[in-house]
């Protein structure tokens, strides 16, 4: 496990030329984008959060965000962080998230996006795998002490030179607020074709894969998203989902909104009580939710005393959203539902605001770009007729050509001619819209949080009493899917119960959402004709009786 010197797989020259000629890639960087916006309207509010003392409101104008990102970049540079360095960023929905990200963009250092839910297992892996130079955390958040986590991470990651804490009480580490320094004279930043960051993949393998995105390709997906979602400088985007997730970051998300010169409001937590008050007080015009939250909001909206009339668009995506639920959104919330089927690897599909209303509730939209190539194929990679369900393969101007430093996995996850195998089963409608019908990848989609079965299985196998383990999805009325581990215990080993196994997994530093919701003990696994474990049969084998 070492930091690779080699670059990430990239687009062949002829594709890059085509995407530039078409105007998709414009040679702009994130640093340049923010500078331009700050120049155009310095005094407009760019960011609002509730991260002040006792949850008080704070604001950043475009000029302030620009200046503070510069000041932070200067201080980071003074600490030896520069072009190509990796920095694991694990911050909640606060303004510092955007300051940090833009500071790193300016330096050409790469944020590695972690989620607040991640723990020692995930974070130490990200740090070691990327050879990260720094790790940036909140002090305490959601009742959890990230300084204590950082102490453990530091002990296991020799490359880490700095832990920075976005809190007055940094414990044994340096407070992020100490890092801001008077901006130095102009330094040369990255170029638009350079990597901007490493995004986390949902994953279906033993260890998470990292997704290398460039300034050029990501900025194109933002411009495209803004056009489709009608984001302008009058838009107010509420960032409800964890800010580092690809959906709230880019569809159109906080970065899309800043690109348009609009306002990003960081939501401290997603409950209707908090979010509805903020929608009213801040005049929020659009936001994005995963299906379970969209359901909760839809239930709560008709009874709320808050005025939600500013809300124009609710994006829902990340997991299957039933047609019945989709039909209820617009009437309950008084806004337009926009379905989004996206992936951190690239391709994002949206229903259009002016699509036929039926398409808006029965499909997951169509691609952003005319240059997004979509193939729906059978198990032998042969195209299936329109209307038939098959595997979705895609390539295009903002879909990666390979994961970061994963040559063997890339052989499987991409076709020879560069199509990404999404692992999703879809059907195309005659209108060119996609309907997500299922999944071929070995993953659990727990209300939008992706869990790679193999990763959890490996942790279970590390227990002395576990002979074998398989983790599969089972239906959940609220989450859509939850995870169930089927475990065969070792003959003659110390018996162990479900509770003990769960706390064993927690003790290994696995994020809470990956801990199986249910663990069942079995004597054997069902097998397929060729003797492989049949996950399909497992999914139905132990379905809980109603
Ligand atoms: C069914 N499954 C969906 C949908 C994603 C916008 C929106 C979502 C993501 C995201 C994103 C789905 N219906 N509407 O990055 O920019 C499942 C598919 C897909 C996987 C990607 C964005 N929308 N999915 O969810 O990288 O299985 O991105 O391949 O987290 O989520 O997960 P992720």
From TrEMBL:
PROSITE patterns associated with the record: AMP_BINDING
Pathway membership: Siderophore biosynthesis
Domain AMP-binding enzyme C-terminal: 455-532
Pfam families, A to Z: AMP-binding, AMP-binding_C
The AMP-dependent synthetase/ligase domain, residue ranges: 35-404
Superkingdom of the organism of origin: Bacteria
Matches recorded under InterPro entries: AMP-bd_C, AMP-bd_C_sf, AMP-binding_CS, AMP-dep_synth/lig_dom, ATP-dep_AMP-bd_enzyme, DHB_AMP_lig
SUPFAM superfamilies: Acetyl-CoA synthetase-like (SSF56801)
Alphabetically ordered keywords of this record: Ligase
Keyword DNA-binding appears in the UniProt entry: no
NCBIfam families registered for this protein in UniProt: DHB_AMP_lig
Name by which UniProt lists this protein: (2,3-dihydroxybenzoyl)adenylate synthase
Species of origin: Streptomyces sanyensis
